[in-house]
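Researcher: Re-running this chain for the archive, since the previous output was lost when a drive failed. Same request as before.
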Amino acid sequence: MSKSDKRLEKMRRNPRGDWRIEDVQVVCRAFGLDCRPPATGSHYTVSHASQVEIWTIPADRPIKAVYIRKLVTYIDAVRATEANAPNQPPVSYRGRTPDR
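Model: Regenerated structure tokens:
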């Protein structure tokens, strides 16, 4: 198990921990997500080509548990999408397909 897998599991087990935006960036980078700093304001943008949703996470410290839970769910959706059908069009992590 890699360090990023361990960090993701720690986030999963303890979303209320003292998580910083640097932790989020490391996990996003490890799993191929795009974590962009804000041009203005204080919210980072997290996205992936296989997903329709784009999440925003505030850079306040500590990051609230709800944002960590959403990030873990988003990473799980990315991993599931890549494992099942790597060349499929983007789908919602909630199981809905976009209208195209």
